[in-house]
């Protein structure tokens, strides 16, 4: 039985903390094979069982890396049958519980790729059009939003960088994977998000690839505007009560609450770290929030 989940002792996976999902992935394949209506497809898929077991093992041992997972040569009929297995994960189908279980396991209903927007469905980490053998592999499926799904498309990455894998990649750090520069010296408050230079070197390139390809800097900066507007009044009151120190105190209080709810890698943690670090912002620059 193949189960998936982080192999390290850390559960801080990608953008959000979450519990590992335990799933018998071979049983899922067998369930789908048995429920295919066309007998010829059922027999064809059944004959692939051992191949699929072996491919699932490779996937898990290599944490889904697109750099080592071989693209198998299947006939067009087999490719179509493997890819269409995914249709049986929808509501009311034989593997509908797989989709429900993965989505239920997401934290705060957030997308696992950006960790910020609500999910709308599942993303195949290794795209099913290229790797149909993993179309129903639970390790290969993560909740995602429509924007990330569209931007990720069928890109698989290269030796220079790949997307972070929400089921396997761990930053293993108590600090955010993100860094936020706050600029409050112009007429308005601006934010720029980048990958923290303090991340372990092994994951730095992939994190930068992930941020760039999904255009997360721009996404987080847009969302930061709403967050800043929502706290402007609180900061004005704090400043009247105790000046710059009281503003920092209020920002740290809000930041702690965010970390308690969503973990250190949630994008807002980086935002609040950046706000506290910007002297211009805490000494009155927050008045430029608009
Ligand atoms: Zn997303």
Give structural notes:
The chain contains ten helices and six strands. The chain folds into two domains: 12-152, no CATH class; 178-288, no CATH class. Helix 1 packs antiparallel against helix 2 and helix 1 packs antiparallel against helix 3. It has a two-stranded antiparallel sheet. The chain has a two-stranded antiparallel ribbon with strand order 3-4. It has 290 residues and is mainly alpha-helical. The chain has helices spanning 25-35, 39-46, 49-61, 76-84, 96-104, 146-152, 201-213, 216-262, 267-277, 279-282; strands at residues 12-13, 16-17, 121-124, 141-144, 178-183, 190-195. Residues 111, 113-114, 117, 144-145, 147-148 line the site of zinc ion.
List the helices and strands and how they pair.
Layout: E1 12-13, E2 16-17, H1 25-35, H2 39-46, H3 49-61, H4 76-84, H5 96-104, E3 121-124, E4 141-144, H6 146-152, E5 178-183, E6 190-195, H7 201-213, H8 216-262, H9 267-277, H10 279-282
Antiparallel strand pairs: 1-2, 3-4, 5-6
Helix pairs in contact: 1-2, 1-3, 8-9
């Amino acid at each position: 039985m193949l189960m998936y989940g982080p192999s390290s002792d850390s559960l801080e996976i990608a953008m959000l903390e979450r519990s590992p999902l335990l799933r018998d992935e071979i049983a899922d394949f067998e369930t789908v094979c048995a429920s295919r209506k066309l007998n010829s497809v059922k027999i064809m898929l059944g004959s692939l069982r051992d191949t699929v077991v072996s491919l699932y093992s490779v996937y898990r041992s290599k944490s889904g890396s697109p750099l080592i997972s071989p693209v198998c040569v299947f006939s067009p009929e087999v490719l179509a049958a493997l890819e269409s297995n995914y249709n049986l994960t929808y509501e009311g189908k034989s593997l509908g519980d797989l989709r429900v279980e993965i989505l239920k396991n997401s934290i705060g209903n957030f997308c696992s790729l950006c960790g910020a927007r609500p999910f709308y469905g599942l993303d195949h980490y290794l795209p099913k059009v290229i790797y149909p053998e993993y179309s129903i592999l639970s390790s290969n499926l993560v909740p995602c939003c429509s924007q990330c799904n569209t931007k990720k498309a069928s890109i698989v990455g290269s030796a220079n960088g790949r997307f972070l894998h929400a089921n396997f990649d761990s930053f293993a750090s108590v600090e955010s994977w993100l860094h936020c520069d706050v600029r409050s010296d112009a007429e308005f408050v601006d934010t720029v998000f980048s990958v923290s230079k303090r991340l372990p070197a092994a994951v730095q390139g992939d994190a930068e690839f992930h941020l760039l390809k999904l255009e997360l800097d721009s996404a987080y900066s847009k969302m930061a505007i709403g967050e800043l507007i929502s706290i402007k009044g609180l900061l004005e009151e704090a400043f009247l009560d105790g000046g710059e120190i009281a503003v920092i105190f209020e920002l740290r209080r809000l930041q702690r609450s965010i970390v308690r709810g969503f973990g250190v890698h949630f994008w807002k943690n980086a935002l609040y770290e950046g706000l506290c670090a910007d002297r211009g912002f805490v000494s009155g620059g927050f008045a430029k929030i608009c």
